[in-house]
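Hello,

Following up on my earlier ticket. Below are the two sequence lines again, exactly as submitted.
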Amino acid sequence: MKILIVDDSMTSRMLFKAYMPKDGQHELFEAAVLPDALEKMRKVQPELVILDYNMPEYNGVEMARVMLDAGLKAKFVLLTANTQRTVVDSALAAGFIQVVEKPVNAAKIAALLAQVA
Amino acid sequence: MERMQDSLFQVFCEDCRQRVQRVAGIMQAGVPLSCVQLDQLHQEFDTLFGGARAVHLPEMELFFRSMAIYARYLRNCLREGQTIEQSAWQDLLAGIAMAGRCGGDMSQCFEPCNKPRSTLLQVIENRINKGNAR
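Thanks for your patience. The regenerated structure is below:
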């Protein structure tokens, strides 16, 4: 599965990469800002897009809306340390399939991939 | 696993340096800051909070989280039209200066900074609890 992670924190992106299963079944792409994310979505057409919530300029939910408005389709997952009801509700209303609480670990990523597969 | 943690720590250090530089850039405008600038500070500190948590640095996690909360608190005070007194801005500047030390040599920052950090955090917490930004 092609997965795009969009997070302005390089620590967070690396943590995700480190805990990804090394089974050769997944290909991970990274972006830190919206223009790069849009370009990668067009280029690699990921099945799954994981977006951080708290980013400069656009939050993860707003970014997903921009992607959808641009006709880019994928399953969206929100990654956030902020699991306030309003954040979770806004993500689900925008069509996100899941909200994963930061920090990620191997078990959280495995559970997410099993759900999406 | 240990190698992964080392690599992650190095990435966090670099992330921290870059964000502290951006914070310093925001502060160049001088106080009082605008709501937009305080939102930017909140975003940078909140991301550093998440990074510190990811690399298991609980003191840094608490520090960056508190700074993020304080930036948001000042933003809310400003938005409500409250006057923010100089000492409240100075607490923010002190926190940013401490973060700046983390943006230098990280290894020399974590332990030696713990005491002054916790003292500042107590001041900030009292200020927030009392609703005292003015």
